[in-house]
Design a protein that fits this description.
Oligomer: single chain
CATH class: Alpha Beta
Radius of gyration: 19 Å
Number of domains: 1
Order of helices and strands: HHHHEEEHHEE
Number of strands: 5
CATH topology: Nuclear Transport Factor 2, Chain: A
Number of helices: 6
Strand content: 15-25%
Strand order of the largest sheet: 1-2-3
Structural class: alpha+beta
Length: about 180
């Protein structure tokens, strides 16, 4: 009887450990799904609140800038033309996903396809990051726009579009910041 209790207790603890690990490992994915649903619905407040606190504090993005970006770039060139058909979790170090979350950023590859079956190539990427000292995961909005604009309209044109829209800096997934240069 005692052995049975010990075994059941061990199985229960093991199951609890696996469930906690699974919940933690899925946290970036849940954040990304919330971001993508908010993007599809043009929910500016949710998109703004999912941006890292430093990106908001430094006013790299504002609700007005997010609204403009969704209306003039993301809605016409991405959301109205393509459908998300797959999300693949990857790693910033290798192509395979990390099993243990030690990094502060998780890379997701987003596969989109139009009505004719054409895919965006290369696929879009989204980083979900957890700034140091934070428990919550965020999606750096300006970096998502930066990589998406490059994929959809080209490298130089993407930078020019962002600058004309009002972006002056891009907040990276690792907490770094890069300046955007004015178009020539």
């Amino acid at each position: 009887m005692r052995l049975k209790r010990v075994m059941l207790g061990g199985i229960g603890v093991g199951l609890l450990v696996v469930l906690v690990w699974w919940w933690q490992w899925q946290a970036p994915y849940r954040t990304l799904k919330t971001f993508l649903v908010a993007l599809e619905r043009s929910d500016v407040n949710t998109l703004y609140n999912l941006a890292p606190p430093k990106e908001r504090k430094l006013e790299i993005i504002t609700p007005d800038l997010i609204q403009y970006t969704v209306q003039h770039l993301l809605r016409p060139l991405l959301l109205d033309r393509y459908q998300l058909v797959g999300i693949r979790r990857s790693s910033t170090r290798s192509g395979r996903p990390e099993i243990w979350i030690r990094d502060t950023a998780v890379l997701f590859v987003l596969h989109h396809r139009d009505r004719e079956g054409n895919e965006i190539s290369p696929p879009l990427v989204a980083f979900v990051s957890r700034p140091l000292g934070e428990k919550k995961w965020y999606v750096p909005f300006s970096y998502f726009v930066y990589t998406t604009a490059h994929s959809l309209i080209g490298f130089n044109e993407g930078d020019a579009w962002m600058y004309k829209a009002g972006y002056r800096f891009v907040y990276l997934h690792n907490g770094g910041i890069i300046p955007l240069k004015p178009p020539r």
